[in-house]
């Protein structure tokens, strides 16, 4: 059974492998070079409080993670957040994304966010399906804003308005 919980520092090596695999194989991130454990420790320290970082665990193994990030740094954006979800390649299609999404959106609601934004690289229909399942709506596209794997990549934006404010 998948267990969702707040990430702890000892989860970082597993989370790093999931992220580096995405860098190597997917357009889900526009990072082009693999991260080091030290770089990811700095990244990890940005989370907590208003910006939760959660993991999905199965039989003691971290198999995915999700987080909320600042949408933009201006104060008027403080009730908006951007969502990220990453799942181990060995565990995709087994409900991990759904479990992570349920919990991270629950936390977004409890934290009083008004809206959640997701940027999804063009062609990632699995991610689009997951977000639409939770009520996200397509709101626009930035064309050819990333260059990865020898091709220009579009980013499609999806948005969920949270009506049950905490």
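-> sequence recovered:
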């Amino acid at each position: 059974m998948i267990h969702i919980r707040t990430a702890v520092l000892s989860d970082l090596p597993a989370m790093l492998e999931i992220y580096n695999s995405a860098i190597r194989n997917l357009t889900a991130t526009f990072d082009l070079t693999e991260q080091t454990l030290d770089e990811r420790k700095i990244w990890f320290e940005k989370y907590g409080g208003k910006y939760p970082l959660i993991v999905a665990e199965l039989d003691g193994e971290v198999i995915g993670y999700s987080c909320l990030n600042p949408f933009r740094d201006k104060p008027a954006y403080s009730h908006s957040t951007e969502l990220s979800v990453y799942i181990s390649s060995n565990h995709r299609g087994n409900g991990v994304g759904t479990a992570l999404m349920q919990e991270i959106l629950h936390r977004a609601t409890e934290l009083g966010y008004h809206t959640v934004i997701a940027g999804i690289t063009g062609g990632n229909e699995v991610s689009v399906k997951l977000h639409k399942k939770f009520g996200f709506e397509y709101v626009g596209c930035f064309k050819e804003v990333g260059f990865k794997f020898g091709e220009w990549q579009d980013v499609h934006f999806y948005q969920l308005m949270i009506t049950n404010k905490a």
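The beta strands are 3-6, 53-58, 61-70, 80-87, 115-121, 137-148, 151-161.
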